[in-house]
Amino acid sequence: MNYDFSGKVALVTGASGGIGRATALGFAASGAAVVVSDVNDAGGEETVALIAAAGGKAVYQRCNVADEAEVKALVARAVSEYGRLDFAHNNAGINNMGANEYDDEVWDRSVAINLSGVMYCMREEAEVMLAQGKGAIVNTSSINGLVGNGAQPGYTATKHGVIGLTRHGALRWAKAGIRVNAVCPGVIETPMTAPLASNPEMRKVLDSLTPMGRMGQADEIAAAVLWLCSDQASFVTGHPLVVDGGATAT
After folding, report:
1. What is the predicted pLDDT for the residue at 92?
2. What is the bridge-based pairing of β-strands 240-243 and 87-90?
3. Residue 85 pLDDT > 80, yes or no?
4. In terms of residue numbers, what domain contains 78?
5. How far apart are CA 101 and CA 84, in angstroms?
6. Which of 113, 200, 205, 238 counts the most CB atoms within 10 A of its CB?
7. How many Å apart are CA 186 and CA 178, to the nearest integer?
């Protein structure tokens, strides 16, 4: 479904590919100006080029969300470039598949990007939205933010934390016109899962993890993000929206 976001401004982190790129393209296709952010400059610029080729409006701003100063600069860029900020999809994150997340360095990096990065973004975005009297924020969590994962303590803990931050923001800003929600994707076909999905046998395993028998697509998550930002979801806040093909229904 397309929405009329004409005159609106959206910010998307982790938008060099996968879910973030799909969301950025969706916002642009619905008429919003988009601030595309990532640490992958080539991918981020490619997302901007794709938006421009489709007739949309976007700019790229490099941002490591674990760096408070860079997050401040990112949100300031949105305001200086387009004059406002209506929607934010805090999507940047890492998944240390195969790594030992009990290792101090791996753990600290997970917390810095997946959790602190979301908090920094929410804090700066809300400041702009409070001045406007309205806004919508969507954070990317995971089904691992709702259920346990015996292999990944860092990823699981931080994605649970994102849902906690989401509920906090929803309550803190509910009367100020700012809605804060989260999406909880299941196994999605993105550059993050590509190294595994490229192996035919592993692809079968990944497909089998979902009752629907397939991996989800990035644009299916983007559709959920756009709905949460739209007026169609005007009474929805503090909600972790599961988009997982039934994985958590088992």
Report:
1. 98
2. unpaired
3. yes
4. 9-188+218-249
5. 38
6. 113
7. 26
Mean pLDDT, the chain, rounded, equals: 95
Q: Token digits for 112?
A: 């810095």
Measured between alpha carbons, how far is 236 from 101 in angstroms, rounded to an integer? Answer: 34
In a domain, 209, yes or no: no
Using only C-alpha atoms, the chain has a radius of gyration, in whole angstroms, of: 17
For the chain, give the number of residues.
250
In this structure, are residues 240 and 166 in contact, taking their beta carbons and an 8 Å threshold? yes
| Residue 2 included in any domain | no
Q: Which helix (H) or strand (E) holds 68?
A: helix 68-82
Beta strands in the chain (DSSP E): 9-12, 33-38, 57-62, 87-90, 135-140, 178-185, 188-189, 216-217, 240-243
Q: In sequence order, what are the residues at sequence separation of 6 or more whose Cβ sits closer than 8 angstroms to the Cβ of residue 95?
A: 152, 155, 192
Whole-number Å distance between alpha carbons of 115 and 56: 31
Residue in the block written with tokens 């934010």: 88
d(CA 136, CA 104): 34
Q: What is the CATH number of the domain that holds 133?
A: 3.40.50.720
Tokens encoding 227: 């709905």
**pLDDT value at residue 194:** 66
